[in-house]
Automatic annotation (TrEMBL):
Keywords for the protein's UniProt record, in alphabetical order: Methyltransferase, Transferase
SUPFAM superfamilies xrefs: S-adenosyl-L-methionine-dependent methyltransferases
Domain of life: Bacteria
Gene3D superfamilies: Vaccinia Virus protein VP39
Protein name: 16S rRNA (Guanine(966)-N(2))-methyltransferase RsmD
An MF annotation (GO) of this entry: nucleic acid binding
Record GO biological process: rRNA methylation
Length: 181
């Protein structure tokens, strides 16, 4: 994996093979950040990265200047790897070892973007639970977005607050926003 843009543009990172992860492909990540680049000012963004894995998405936000980053993963070695890379690249990423659902139920953090990249084989009810927790607990700042990465075999378009999705190979990004009442 590599960092696409920002202060660490082109930096290649090699995650240990023992990590239980499926990092977002460079092609899909580049497409996602092209979308975000048109609508967001990265240095002003606060981001929560759920199921952070290798930290791939967090590094991209940090390299582009986002200062308030929180990466959540339940796997000790994933959290350890993110902390290691953050130190090496001097990136300010707050890492938390936690089950994502327990984190969402208890956190008082709010963010402009909550990015979730759960396992592609998740049951639909767990994708829905992520969405419901983010919106019911009001974890997004005004104008914030929930972005869920999932496989092309999963359809989240009937979830509350869904606005659109984009497909890149097998990866799909579904975008959710608070509805204006």
């Amino acid at each position: 994996m590599r960092i696409i843009s920002g202060t660490h543009k082109g930096k290649r990172l090699l995650a240990p093979k023992k990590l239980p992860v499926r990092p977002t492909t460079d092609m899909a990540k580049e497409a996602l950040f092209n979308i975000l680049n048109n609508t967001h000012n990265f240095p002003q963004l606060s981001v929560i990265d759920l199921f952070a894995g290798t930290g791939n998405i967090s590094y991209e936000f940090a390299s582009r200047g986002s200062k308030q980053l929180t990466a959540i993963d339940a796997h000790y070695d994933c959290v350890k790897y993110i902390k290691k890379i953050s130190r090496e690249l001097d990136l300010d990423i707050n890492t938390i070892k936690s089950d994502v659902f327990k984190f969402l139920e208890k956190t008082s953090l709010k963010a402009d973007i909550v990015f979730a990249d759960p396992p592609y084989n998740f049951e639909l009810k767990y994708f829905k639970e992520i969405s419901e927790l983010v919106f019911d607990r009001q974890l997004l700042n005004t104008g914030g977005q929930l972005i869920i990465e999932h496989s092309k075999h999963t359809d989240l378009s009937n979830f509350t607050n869904f606005i659109s999705c984009r497909r890149y190979g097998n990866a799909v990004f579904s975008f959710f926003e608070t509805s204006e009442d």
